[in-house]
Amino acid sequence: MTLAAQDLAFGYRGHPVGQGVSLAVAAGEVLALLGPNGGGKTTLLKTLLGLLPPQAGSVMLDGRDLAAIPVRERARLVAYVPQSHHGTFAFTAFDVVLMGRTAHGGLFARPGAKDRAVAAAMLERLGIAHLSGRSVTMISGGERQLVLVARALAQEPRFIVLDEPTASLDFGNQGKVMRQIRSLAADGLGVLFTTHDPNQALGHADRVALLRDGGVMAVGPVAEVLSQERLAALYGAPVETVVEPGGRTAFLPG
Ligand SMILES: Nc1ncnc2c1ncn2[C@@H]1O[C@H](COP(=O)(O)OP(=O)(O)OP(=O)(O)O)[C@@H](O)[C@H]1O
């Protein structure tokens, strides 16, 4: 099963952002999307999720055109973790995670015991069960980010798309989310995430796509694609390479 962009052009009405993008994320793998600010990462994700219509080309989910898949079925297959934002409504963390179950119930069905159990299990999995009864307007940005990841997991999707999932997280929670990402792929999910840290792609992704000016500069296995030269070209800035005594490579802004 794959989620794939085929010769995709994407953008907003009257504002094309990218074109000629072909890439795919398969079940069981992690694909990282890297690129400079404004390069089109979020817009591409929204198009892959069906939140924005393609301007040309297509998005295919398991060989079917995404546009032809009913919205509720789509929601059972693909979950989205948007960039963390301030919640406006004072829902509890538990209720927000429970909302991830909507795609599994009937149109007006109330959540059942199974839905509540899945929501509780996902809060537990992310280590935030203690936040269950707290209002999401009164927790930290990082805690809210973890709630959004738990909500996506409660959807029990086949693919999960995360937009800068670690942006507001402290060092410990960054590690926690990245480990979750790996374990989701081990459970058979396809994972696509954006990041501004090439080292996260290096350490946790199987493949990486480099997006610049709305086009794919390179896509492939991390070890083949991520080099000092490519990253310098991607960001238009110097990049340094550090090789640890154990042989592990890391990139630093130069
Ligand atoms: N709602 C919108 N309507 C019109 N143009 C938009 C809208 N949102 C973003 N853009 C523009 O689309 C382009 C791509 O933005 P996008 O948010 O996809 O980039 P990004 O790679 O995710 O950036 P960042 O790393 O800064 O989050 C930018 O030029 C941006 O100004």
Automatic annotation (TrEMBL):
Organism: Phreatobacter oligotrophus
Residues in ABC transporter domain copies: 3-238
A Pfam family this chain is assigned to: ABC_tran
Name of the molecule in the record: Iron complex transport system ATP-binding protein
Main function: Part of the ABC transporter complex HmuTUV involved in hemin import. Responsible for energy coupling to the transport system.
Family as reported in the entry's similarity comment: Belongs to the ABC transporter superfamily.
UniProt KW keywords: ATP-binding, Nucleotide-binding, Translocase, Transport
Top-rank lineage group of the source organism: Bacteria
A single MF term (Gene Ontology): ATP binding
